[in-house]
């Protein structure tokens, strides 16, 4: 009969304890489907996975940013459509006041309506906001972060479309169509305002298309990264499973050895 020393028993017992701890950690990692913890093994894979995960979250947020940017542009477009409708009515009044079949009293009534339309344009420019920004009453651009890395951005140029900026009203002016001559001249000013409005609306449409394109690219990149991360984590899990099997085999061997030592000691004691 071979009798193992206390050193053999202590070594096997300590190794069994370590295996128990490692097996417990491995089970935790496998149960989550990820290589959790401090990345004791496959540290490079863990680092790559964390970077990819950060990129994915950044891309997701960037898409939210671009959605907000699109909402701002849609709001601007609605405001510009409203102002365009107001200038269309102004043109009707100016054309009406340009004919001599209109009396001065008729022109006065038309002028009163035009004054209200001018004020409506200014109210739209002052009061139309997106998250507190007067998007038709200031010119400081909105900067939209469109990617997960620095300097990946696009600017939305805000516009000021007050009646004065559209050249539809000078300071204190309230007689644009009070005479036939003035009404006829005001039609030319309306032509200029219409051109300005059309230019702004074209720019808004182009910017919307650009952001939609960036959104599609970001969504595609996020999807690709998500698939790559899944494949990386699957490979990490496969390695974890192999390590778990090896640790389990060692654990069973240590337990068998300890059991054999205990049985040998028990048989030895029977001899006395």
Element layout with pairings:
Layout: H1 6-32, H2 43-97, H3 104-127, E1 129-130, E2 133-134, E3 142-145, E4 153-156, H4 180-270
Antiparallel strand pairs: 1-2, 3-4
Helix pairs in contact: 1-4, 2-3, 2-4
Describe the structure.
By secondary structure, this protein is mainly alpha-helical. It has 2 domains: 6-39 and 232-270, no CATH class; 46-226, Up-down Bundle (f41 fragment of flagellin, N-terminal domain), CATH 1.20.1330.10. 72% of the residues lie in helices and 4% in strands. The protein has helices at residues 6-32, 43-97, 104-127, 180-270, and strands at residues 129-130, 133-134, 142-145, 153-156. Strands 1-2 form a two-stranded antiparallel ribbon. The chain has a two-stranded antiparallel sheet with strand order 3-4. α1 (6-32) runs antiparallel to α4, α2 packs antiparallel against α3 (104-127) and α2 packs antiparallel against α4 (180-270). The model has no long low-confidence stretch (mean pLDDT 83). InterPro entries: Flagellin, Flagellin_N. One of its GO terms (cellular component) is bacterial-type flagellum. Residues 11-22 have a biased composition (Polar residues). One of its GO terms (molecular function) is structural molecule activity. It holds the Pfam family Flagellin_N.
């Amino acid at each position: 009969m071979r009798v193992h020393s206390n050193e053999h028993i202590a070594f096997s017992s300590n190794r069994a304890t370590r295996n128990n701890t490692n097996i417990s950690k491995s089970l935790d990692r496998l149960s989550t489907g990820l290589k959790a913890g401090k990345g004791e093994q496959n540290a490079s894979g863990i680092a790559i996975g964390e970077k990819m995960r950060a990129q994915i979250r950044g891309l997701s947020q960037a898409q939210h940013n671009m959605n907000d940017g699109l909402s701002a542009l849609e709001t601007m477009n609605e405001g510009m459509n409203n102002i365009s409708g107001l200038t269309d009515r102004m043109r009707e009044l100016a054309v009406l006041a340009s004919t001599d079949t209109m009396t001065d009293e008729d022109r006065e009534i038309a002028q009163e309506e035009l004054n209200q339309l001018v004020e409506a344009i200014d109210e739209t420019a002052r009061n139309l906001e997106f998250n507190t920004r007067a998007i038709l009453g200031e010119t400081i651009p909105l900067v939209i972060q469109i990617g997960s890395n620095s300097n990946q951005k696009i600017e939305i140029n805000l516009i000021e479309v007050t009646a004065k900026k559209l050249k539809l009203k000078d300071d204190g002016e309230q007689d644009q169509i009070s005479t036939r001559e003035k009404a006829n001249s005001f039609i030319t000013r309306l032509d200029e305002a219409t051109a300005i409005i059309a230019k702004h609306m074209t720019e808004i449409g182009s910017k919307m298309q650009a952001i939609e394109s960036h959104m599609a690219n970001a969504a595609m990149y996020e999807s690709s990264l998500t698939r790559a991360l899944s494949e990386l984590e699957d490979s990490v899990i496969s390695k974890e499973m192999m390590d778990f099997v090896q640790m389990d085999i060692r654990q069973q061997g240590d337990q068998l050895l300890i059991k054999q030592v205990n049985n040998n000691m028990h048989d030895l004691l029977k001899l006395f």
